Amino acid sequence: MEVIHTFWPQVVQGVGDLKKVIQGDVLPKILPEKSLHALVARSERNPQAELLMNILFSVQLFIVLFIFSVLSYTLGQVFLSLAAVEDDAPASYTLVAEKDAEDNKEAVDEACVPRPKPVTSSLRATYRHICSIEGKKSLFRGIACAIAYRLSFIVIALIFSVIPFIGIGIITLLVTSVLLVQLSAAWTHIIISEPSQKPFWHRLLSFKVAFRATALPTVAYYFCGALLEKLPTMLASKLIHQPGEKDIVGWALSLGIYLVISIFISIPTSAVLTRVQASLLPEEDQTIVPLDRALALHKAEGKEYMSMIEAWKSMPRASWIRLYKLYAKIWAVSVLFFFVVGLLFVAEFFIGAVIMQS
To answer: Is the pTM of this model over 0.70?
Structure first.
């Protein structure tokens, strides 16, 4: 469900290491020690210039955080949720083998038509499709439910933190996530379904149904998130023994472990959770993308929900490939974003240095 949750911490760590390198190694080489001391002295004597630079930095930081929030929610939540439930063979596409013998000629003619691509096979196509529903605000569909979910998560976690011998740890994380399965399922339903006049609290399933269907995949998803947060750095520190290698090689090794866990564990558990939640979508709600045929058939057969194993096995290979491609594209956008932000901050620093020296 969250590509930012999957990739972003390692990118942020890399940016932090780059900042340390610039400040610790590059900057003293470009500006001699006397110039640095003079720069500090000039900034103390020119408080107006320093104030201006601080204001510009604050405005820039606000813009960066806003763009980060848009990328995090729209790409990491809306796009990926749709990709996990979309069918790779739209309803307009018909196989020749499914035609009757007397309609074989018409079927052959139809088969010559190129097979339509799923909406989520392209970032641009997904963006256009979502905006065609309710304009730009569709990029934030489900945001009210998401805010309620996050705030509820924080409040419950804080309550657990004051209980002796519990605190804020993996047990608190897992228990809190299970207690909020109703909000999580409603959040997914709002993202993947057509707009509704109902407020999100009217779209909550009964806790019994939501718990029975999504408790296990929810625990698996958040447990993987906990692994991603601790395990890569821990393993990298154990594997690297020379102190001089820990800055660059350690970060690269940690990133590699992070990606392996993400690709083979975190992404699949996220997709499975989304598909299980989608199987609980009420019949009166229609999805904004063609629903995966396994999910549609599951609902047509009158089953209450799709199990975790069924959600895994029913997702075709083409859908997995499309989902991983979408993750790669979003990851590339994320890296490009941070690269541009890094360049802007470096340029701003040197411009500020020039202004201070003038």
So the answer is: yes
